Amino acid sequence: MKLSAEERKRRMSLPRHKMPEQDPIERGRNFEEVNNGYSAELAMEEAQRCIQCSKPRCVAGCPVSVKIPEFIACIAEGKFLEAAHILHEDNALPAVCGRVCPQEEQCEEVCVLGVKGKPVAIGHLERFAADYEREQGEIDLPAIPAPTGKKIAIIGAGPSGLTVAGDLSKQGHDVTIFEALHTAGGVLMYGIPEFRLPKAIVGAEVDYLKQLGVKIETNAVIGKTYTIDELLEEGFHAVYVANGAGLPKFMRIPGENLNGVYSANEYLTRSNLMKAYDFPRVDTPIAKGNNVAVFGGGNVAMDAVRTALRLGADNAYLIYRRSEVEMPARNEEIEHAKEEGIQFHLLTNPTRILGDEQGHVKAVECLRMELGEPDDSGRRRPVPIEGSEFILEVDTVVVAIGTGANPLLAQTTPDLEINRWGYIVADEETGATSKPGVYAGGDIVRGAATVILAMGDGRKAAAAIHNYVMSL
């Protein structure tokens, strides 16, 4: 689609449309989705801003190479279902990605309009098209080729595993996902809160894959229920490992064993997957602290502190040892947290957690920091300010400083090469591991990262797995 110079100029003058949102005060006390989504009119107007570059850098910026100009052009013309169908060609989870991907660091970061103004709202438009398709009930399934007779096992029903399953099922392979939890979705279900990603959206995306023929076996812990070797012995021609990095990390400071201290994994899993926020209408209880401190500065920390607020905290504190500039959380999540009344203690490091006579959290001792020279991550290293200690009274602490690899799978697969941090060593372009027929991707390879990067790993691995099984 080639635009005239005059039309390009007109489009570049159009303002970016902000996503409609719930009122900050209201949303801070409910678990309904923060962003309300574009109307058809807003979506068409925003899509008109795309100047249809001849060499679209946005596509190269997308880890799964979505045909961005093409789907946006369809929205601009009111062809919403066609836009959704184009999205599904490359993205197994467009309604998810439109909500949680860091577009500002990927496709939107390289948008030409962003050089002198604001980039096209690619993520908002992706969400609109995917939601429209689902709401209209017009799910378009691709033609599936004749069965190849090849069986592929996928370990983990998170974003990477679901992506591989979608790509391989479209090629006629017999695909089975083995999921440790009772519900498919991985971090999309247990990690990301309802107010950012409604679980019904995840369920709809999983149902789409089931319609493609993907089978999902839940409550299957690989390393316990089955080993990788047993899967290969039972007739699977290849295995893709995508079990994530869900082992909680703690700071190893005094007081972390007190009652009232949670890992972000447990805190968010109780609330999200097990719907503890709706207790007692559901069976899972959760501590509803009055004064809650969350340690960390990433998206998980932001999810935890905003969840604490919605559970009824009078004060929800985010304690992070660097400044906002170094904070790895998405800009949108930081701004939403501020609007909702989250109290930020930046350049602050927890040094110990204090308990009462009953062994319950009563406060956290912190130390003020200042930024020194950059460390290995490229961010300026936090340096303690001598004599700056202070006490913050809290009754609940959530530690959200990252996760590691669960060692169970590696322990039961001794010929699978693991690095010194416990992650699987895999080829960057194919996902191939040291074990023939076994591939891996997502957080179990790269460490805790984003949904879309895990999906990008899955797309590369799916192509490699297809070539491998068809050569047998």
Concise synopsis of the structure shown:
With 472 residues, the chain is of the alpha/beta class. It contains 18 helices and 16 strands.
- Please tally the helical runs, counting DSSP H or I stretches of 4 or more residues: 18
Please indicate the percent range of residues in DSSP E strands (runs of 2 or more).
15-25%
Shape: globular
Helix content range of the residues, please? 25-40%
Distance linking N and C termini: 42 Å
Q: Which structural class best describes the helix and strand composition?
A: alpha/beta
Unreliable stretches: none
Largest sheet, spatial ordering of strands: 3-2-1-4-16
Q: Mind telling me the C-alpha Rg?
A: 23 Å
Largest sheet: 5 strands, parallel
- Say how many strands there are: 16
On the 0-100 scale, what is the average pLDDT?
A: 95
Question: In terms of topology, how is this protein built?
Answer:
Blueprint: H1 5-12, H2 24-27, H3 40-47, H4 57-60, H5 68-76, H6 80-90, H7 94-100, H8 122-136, E1 151-155, H9 159-169, E2 174-178, H10 187-190, H11 199-211, E3 215-217, H12 228-233, E4 238-241, E5 247-248, E6 261-263, H13 264-271, E7 291-295, H14 299-310, E8 315-319, H15 331-340, E9 343-345, E10 348-355, E11 361-374, E12 380-384, E13 390-393, E14 396-399, E15 403-404, H16 408-411, E16 438-440, H17 443-446, H18 451-470
Parallel strand pairs: 1-2, 1-4, 2-3, 4-16, 6-14, 7-8, 7-14, 8-9
Antiparallel strand pairs: 5-15, 10-11, 11-12, 11-13
